[in-house]
């Protein structure tokens, strides 16, 4: 297994008012791809660094100018995205996993690939290592996310090249990855730019401390919430079907929560995130996690608060008190 540590730099339009006019265009146009390849022992073996000729946005956004110190004249001399991307995929070889700092790069990469009519990297979700998350799991609380340079300082890694270019950030991300204990690599992430289309493509995986499912595309939210497997509650440790002590509810119309009880392992929280797809329909990400009785009570209070707000919205006059 090889680790392809990837970083991208991109440009964006200067005029936000024109955004709706270019609906088929990616929000961010990739102008640089940088990567390093690590072998199974996490030793650096190869590097990739290429600029890309812009074809969508003809002027550099002020943020890109400030961060990258590149002129548009330099970029115009380079090859277009599709050609550079083809070279990059050939360089990646076979039997590898993408690694990035944060969750954004693979989605932006696929957005640009789709715009230029290139074949998708995968038919469904892409498994990858989010090194920013792995660093937090290994050295912090597992929830917070820090800047790449902060991680470099924490690990006392030498800063031998400047930050904020695609290759340099991929290089430093690879340095951090090599320091993260390998046992944390099981906490992989999934890019869902292309969600599962069929039941066979769905993702169901158990991590240390929680389980995650990425369900196929449904016609709409109602269809998703009527699917028995989506709304089921099973213990990811003993695989038994569980009785809900708090039924599915939503405090905001977007995320749904429930609590079930396993007689062997205790309370389990379920969370549904319903995501729209680009053309039509929705897909669902479900996570389940064992929680304490105190955490269960917090969710119960959240449910009661959501019910109170819903009733107040339905019957606004009932909240008016008589003098």
Architecture overview:
The protein has 323 residues and is α+β, with helices and mostly antiparallel strands. The protein folds into 2 domains: 2-189, 2-Layer Sandwich (Nucleotidyltransferase, domain 5); 197-314, no CATH class. It has 10 helices and 12 strands. The strands form 2 sheets. A 6-stranded mixed sheet has the order 3-2-1-4-5-6, sandwiched between helices. A 6-stranded antiparallel sheet has the order 7-8-12-11-10-9, with helices on one face. A hairpin with a 2-residue loop joins β7 and β8. The longest helix has 22 residues, at 293-314.
- Distance from N terminus to C terminus (CA atoms, Å) equals 74 Å
SS-based class:
alpha+beta
**Quick one: overall form?**
globular
Mean pLDDT: 92
The helix content, as a percent range, equals 25-40%
CATH topology call of the largest domain? Nucleotidyltransferase, domain 5
Give the H and E element order: EEEHHHEHEHHHEEEHHEEEEH
Low-pLDDT ranges: 319-323
Please tally the helical runs, counting DSSP H or I stretches of 4 or more residues: 10
Main sheet record: 6 strands, mixed
Q: What is the count of structural domains? A: 2
In total, the number of strands is 12
CATH superfamily of the largest domain: Ribonuclease H-like superfamily/Ribonuclease H
- What value does the Rg take, in angstroms? 23 Å
Tell me what the CATH architecture of the largest domain is: 2-Layer Sandwich
CATH class of the largest domain: Alpha Beta
